[in-house]
Specification:
mainly alpha; DNA polymerase, domain 1; three-stranded antiparallel β-sheet; Integrase_recombinase_N; Site-specific recombinase, phage integrase family; Tyrosine_recombinase_XerCD
């Protein structure tokens, strides 16, 4: 390992830490750490010596990223994203403490009070009907992918990485084993597409195929190493697929929602149709049922009153 001393910059310390971690983490995690370091930590701390970093700097970094951390200059990052960054920064500084180039730190910082959660955006019934009709009238590998997402709630990286070897038409199950993402490194002014296993075990999952979808999949079934939405060995990356989806929405003249709204729409429909929360959570690949509940379950006052009336009526019997 390279010589470490108190005059070392935090940038150099990050490089050594990440190189050391590389052999022990998944490729997707490595690229997540690399993106955080190159796009946020290095650009914020610049040439600062690692020995000069204090808890005050830690807190300033958190507040800066929450208020204006987006790379496109359009405001701040989410609390979850910033928390992920603090995990990396803590690990780097702990690494520096272990090698005695900085004094012990307690990493004291505060995240401002949680803001009101934004409601998820979904396609309404008429919009869903239009999308499904268009897909069936213009069926190809790419529109088939849209239909799969409507019926399963797959993330865009998951549908782009889906190969025919992952689609078992005998058992009527889709296996989610990979995801595709494009990462941008601002310091190098370049981006890279990576294909990796899902970040969490809950994201690696089996999803039953709706009966009406099976014959359509059979129609397009191809070589096991071909990608479902491209119909060949070459993948279609998320950025390109988003453009295809946006073009389709323009043709249909409906809400210009993001591709991820297909996932939100699936989850909302599932819950509205009485599917239990745990099942929905597992189909979506959420790490916990709490994520599903916070995103999609918002009982209104009428529903709450009905529940309380049921309790009272049972007691009154």
């Amino acid at each position: 390992m390279r010589t470490m001393n108190k005059n070392m910059s935090i940038s150099k310390c990050m490089d050594i830490w990440l190189k050391n971690e590389h052999n022990y983490i998944k490729e997707s995690t490595y690229f997540l750490y690399l993106t955080i370091i190159e796009n946020h930590l290095k650009t914020y701390f610049k040439k600062r010596k690692v020995s000069t970093i204090s808890n005050k700097d830690f807190q300033s970094f958190v507040l800066d990223k929450l208020s204006c951390g987006r790379l496109d200059g359009r405001g701040g990052l989410s609390k979850k994203t910033v928390k992920d960054m603090t995990v990396v920064l803590k690990s780097v500084l702990t690494f520096a403490m272990k090698h005695k180039i900085i004094d012990r730190m307690e990493f004291e910082f505060k995240i401002p009070k949680k803001e009101k959660t934004k409601e998820v955006e979904v396609f309404n019934f008429e919009e869903r009907r239009k999308i499904c009709k268009y897909v069936k009238n213009n069926l190809c590998n790419q529109t088939l992918g849209i239909l799969i997402c409507i019926c399963t709630g797959l993330r865009i990286g998951e549908i782009c990485a889906l190969k025919w070897e992952d689609v078992d038409l005998k058992t009527e199950v889709i296996n989610i084993n990979h995801t595709i993402q494009r990462i941008y490194i601002s310091t190098a002014k370049k981006s890279k597409v990576i294909i990796s296993s899902p970040k969490t075990e809950s994201s690696r999952r089996k999803i039953p195929i709706a009966s009406e979808l099976v014959p359509l999949l059979q129609q397009f079934k191809s070589n096991s190493d071909f990608y479902v939405i491209s119909g060949e060995k070459k993948y279609i990356e998320p950025r390109t697929y988003r453009k295809f989806f946006k073009k389709m929405l323009n043709i249909l003249k409906i809400s210009k929602l993001k591709f991820h709204s297909l996932r939100h729409t699936f989850a909302t429909q599932a819950i509205e149709n009485g599917i239990d929360y745990k099942t929905v959570s597992e189909i979506l690949g959420h790490a916990s049922i709490g994520i599903t509940l916070n995103l999609y379950v918002h009982p209104d006052l009428k529903h709450k009153k009905e529940c309380l009336n049921k309790i009272f009526n049972n007691l009154a019997k």
